[in-house]
Design brief:
Number of strands of chain A: 19
Largest interface: A-B, 115 and 115 residues
Radius of gyration of chain A: 27 Å
Strand order of the largest sheet of chain A: 8-7-9-10-12-11-17
Largest sheet of chain A: 7 strands, mixed
Number of helices of chain A: 23
Distance between the termini of chain A: 80 Å
Structural class of chain A: alpha/beta
Oligomer: homodimer
Strand content of chain A: 5-15%
């Protein structure tokens, strides 16, 4: 762990003073706020003092500068340290730091969010910052081709998250020389010692085995840190600086003591600590700036030519996803990712046409979503696909992406019991509930190829988390090429003014509703059929019309468990209505098994006969 | 990769014949079904032939035998091979295999489920079988203290899942000498080559770095496999047999060919392959049986003495969770796990009282849930806890646990904006939606310590996935010790026959509803207050009464996003009602920030003033 001395004495003194300022500020702001994680900040103060003074190439007054390095606090709870940095570089005032940290309305939140223009993504759910960094680094190395570097400060506790190893694996696989993880190995987690404590050698062997270059360093030796970051920047592949540190470093009362995670120092203790650290300083750091980026050479965007389908032809919506995504490839900012199932999700159609903008994430759905988030940080428009069922693997990443206010498109294929013989493990039956509950999300579920392609095109411009649910099997094309399918809209497929009942479906159940309407017509029952392809936002006006015209007789049919899906969306939308509404809600109420699509839909009570019976009961 | 020859020629011939039979049966049943994964079965046939003939100690006619080894197909898509094994050991007939595989009503589903008594857990979402195996092995080594061995057959594609590394890390940490992962490194995933293809050396280094003993072997060399399994059984820690195999092995037309994942052979091709493999065989395997397990010495169960709380005292429900869990420790089958936040979830109270039955899973929520599933396979009653927000990390595991029909209790603490200054990354605001949508789940959200403790006690007997949501802050005890809180029930806290409006809350919002009812009383509006502590199942009768008595005027208030939570539960329950119901639904509609609990609840419109206004608007 001995490194050559690269720092002159004066430089070392300056860095030491800066580190002391960062510590003092982290202590002060958390004590003032009455909550926060000062000790987790103290351990990494020396690392960050060296980074921002000598390695991070960042134009602080112009955070959107394309040439800027990226700094991600994967250990988001060390926000006092991050905010102390922002004061040291002159973009956050002492007043803002001291008076607003963790207060209502402040951009200095308990864990970092992009409310701050220097923060790319929200962190605070451990093991996510580094995987997002992989996405940013992919953009830099393969798309932007700019020399910026991505630095992710990780905690040692989060090294127990599998997502960290998915990230390092992909960093190695893609040879991301522009990515450095800095692991603050301070030995103590929230409730006591971490699993590996200071076993740096095990960390080193793991990192190496996952294809990254480990650099073990004393995280309080400024010269050694400086040398390590130099090495990292010049490396030919991804690097991981494994820094042995002391939690609470600089405040002897709490150094290396358990029981001090997530606790501010008491005011008197804080005052003593600040004094011992030399008091409040007003150091202003002028770290390196990036070289100006060459002007952006954006290839001319051709308006996408969406695929055309013959009405009545049998086409799977997952195929339409692939066709439309390939068409969107004419927009140079569209990129696609897949979790090693692109021949099923049909993202392969894009991959074949645009191999340079397609990223294979193999079977690691957390990294799949994280990479998408990273790519959109750099201005790209990522479409990430896997089976609907397996997006559940990345649910925490999707949740956090929403807090990051990331704009990403997700496609979940093979949704519902419709998939048939593969059985319940492959069926997405809770995806509508889960994705609807994501803040600010959009949830789309087209019934045919034409509407699917149109919606895929709209996804490219939509803000937030946009989820598209596609179907495995082939179903007839219902709409004319060129029809409009605005997000938030719906389609009236059957019926007029004097309908007895309205059948509301989305995706595969729209076809069952149409067949049921035909059967009901034989019985003299006139059924309106509505395609609710936009599950969130939902077309409330269309529902109000249906309530008015049918006397409040609605059948909702979904290939999804009964909780939180299309039925709930309809009910939530009509909750405040004064007039009576009776909803007969058909959904998958038991645990499905293998079978054919038709058998399983019938068994679940979402097939044609069940819809007819439900409508009859209301009419 | 050269191993000593341990097999006599005759034994090798028998094993070769058995492997051929397994291949033939895997081909036949998938071709007959018209779907399935024969090539992924062929690669592992030699491994499994040796395992079941000479290593797996299993009493096939008595699958609940406590001494049995466990065999988990983590690569669940190789179900044709598993079912071919079941035929070979004599518990599934040729007729059942050939006529029912993947058919409606069959227990031989597309991916294995516990519909078969020899299957511990459902697999098919990759990277889950091994983590569950860790839980089973924990039970064997630390609780049962029985010499059974856990064998998990993994695919190479799933080695890209972070959860595999969480599992190996925990296997190493806990020194699970009774666990062996067998990795079928057949080089080809679904859509092409895997990330590491046949780079066995990288796998070896990764496994070693994660604390497990790698054994690299030619997966088609019967003697070498035999030797490897001998080593694995005798090892002093967890082992990983890394078997280099050929996908489609035994059928030259498809061997090592891409494009054959998840595809049955066409009938003529299958017939030729079966002939080339020697045709249909009727081999009956008699593998080793386990030594009889010693009689179970169950310590006498003392009825738990639930904690008592003084009415009006300020107690956080998360503390009540810890108190009640510690009380449940008197039942010897109750075990607890936590994701390195037990001082927050208060699972530490159990950990301190019963360290032998407490498993620290560190920051790896996927493994946390998987270990719980494994422990319940062995008959234990696991309670696993982390922050509500971070259970989202394990959502796919919870989804699969439901398909496994596992009985596990989950506790999510720090739910909602109520947590205050830590900010949105730490707030569980989609957990009710996500957990309600899990098949067969129970969702509980108590408002006070007494009801929380009572519900924790009931969780121990409840089937399926049982989720308890707890609150960070302290709130007054509302109920008397000894009150009943049946799952599916609710509590009427205020009101009688002639109420103007009903206020429905759960958890923290119950307290806001009570304060709102007081304010409304000053205005002459009589508000009924209902504590819907059982979010799923919901107390429909109580809702019907409220609708009847208030003329359908309901205010629902939840500390959760508007989609899929308590409001949806109420609406779903009342969907089919003929009489008009107007629901004013208060929920967290924007992206929250940091702040105090009260500020954030007010800002979200779920505080007292918002409830009063909502009730006033209805009354």
């Amino acid at each position: 762990m001995e490194a050559e001395r690269t720092l002159r004495d004066e430089e070392a003194t300056q860095l030491g003073d800066l580190a002391a300022q960062l510590r003092v500020d982290a202590i002060r702001c958390s004590t003032k706020a009455g909550s926060g994680h000062p000790t987790s900040s103290l351990s990494a103060a020396d690392l960050m003092a060296v980074l921002i003074s000598r390695h991070l190439r960042y134009d602080w007054v112009n955070p959107p500068n394309r040439a800027n390095d990226h700094l991600i606090f994967s250990k988001g709870h060390a926000s006092p340290l991050l905010y102390a940095i922002l004061r040291a570089v002159g973009v956050v005032s002492e007043q803002e730091l001291m008076e607003t940290y963790r207060q209502l309305g402040s951009r200095l939140q308990g864990h970092p969010t992009p409310a701050l223009p220097w923060v790319d993504v929200a962190t605070g759910s451990l093991g996510q910052g580094l995987p997002v960094g992989v996405g940013i680094a992919l953009a830099g190395q393969y798309l932007d081709r700019l020399p910026f570097h991505v630095w992710a400060l990780c905690g040692d506790s989060e090294m127990a998250e599998g997502s960290i190893w998915e990230a390092l694996d992909k960093a190695g696989h893609y040879g991301l020389r522009n990515l450095t993880a800095i692991v603050d190995v301070n030995r103590l987690g929230q409730r006591g010692p971490t699993e590996l404590e200071w076993d740096l050698d095990t960390y080193r062997r793991r990192v190496e085995a996952f294809g990254c270059h480990p650099i073990v360093v004393d995280g309080h030796d400024l010269g050694a840190i400086d040398e390590a970051f130099d090495q990292a920047r010049q490396a030919t592949g991804p690097t991981v600086v494994l820094a042995r540190t002391i939690k609470g470093k600089g405040v002897p009362d709490v150094e290396n003591q358990p029981g001090w995670h997530g606790k501010p120092l008491k005011p008197d203790m804080a005052e003593r600590a600040v004094q011992a650290l030399g008091g409040v300083r007003q150091i202003r750091v002028n770290g390196p700036r990036p070289d100006p980026a060459p002007p952006v050479k954006v290839p001319a965007a051709q308006p996408p030519e969406l695929p055309q389908y013959e009405k009545g032809a049998q086409v799977a919506t997952r195929n339409a996803y692939g066709d439309a995504l390939r068409a969107l490839g004419s927009l140079p900012d569209v990129v696609a990712l897949d979790g090693e199932v692109s021949d099923s999700t049909r993202a392969d159609k894009f991959g074949e046409a645009y191999p340079d903008r397609f990223f294979e994430m193999f079977i690691s759905e957390q990294q799949l979503v994280a990479a998408a988030v990273g790519l959109q940080v750099r201005g790209y428009r990522p479409f990430a696909a896997t089976f609907a069922a397996f997006l559940s693997r990345a649910y925490d990443f999707i949740r956090m992406a929403a807090i990051s206010q990331a704009d990403i498109a997700l496609s979940g294929s093979h949704a519902g019991v419709e998939i048939g013989p593969d059985g319940p493990s492959q069926m997405g039956l809770e995806d509508l509930a889960a994705l609807r509950a994501v803040q600010g999300s959009t949830v789309l579920y087209p019934s045919d190829a034409v509407s699917c392609a149109a919606l895929v095109a709209e996804m490219a411009d939509r803000e937030g988390i946009v989820y598209l649910r596609t179907t495995r099997g082939k179903y007839p094309v219902l709409y004319d090429n060129g029809d409009d399918f605005p997000i938030g809209g719906s389609k009236l497929l059957r019926g007029g003014k004097n309908d007895d009942v309205a059948l509301l479906g989305a995706g595969v159940t729209v076809h069952n509703c149409l067949a049921a309407a035909d059967e009901l017509a034989h019985e003299g029952i006139t059924a309106r059929v509505i395609d609710l392809y936009s599950v969130k936002p939902l077309d409330r006006q269309r529902l109000l019309d249906a309530v008015r015209d049918t006397g409040g007789r609605l059948v909702v049919v979904e290939d999804h468990y009964p909780e939180g899906g299309l039925g709930s969306a309809v009910l939530e939308s009509l909750a405040d209505l004064a007039e009576p509404v009776r909803v007969n809600h058909l959904a998958v109420r038991g645990l499905p098994t293998s079978g054919t699509s038709a058998q399983l839909m019938d068994q679940a009570g979402i097939g044609v006969h069940a819809i007819v019976a439900a409508a009859r009961a209301l009419a």
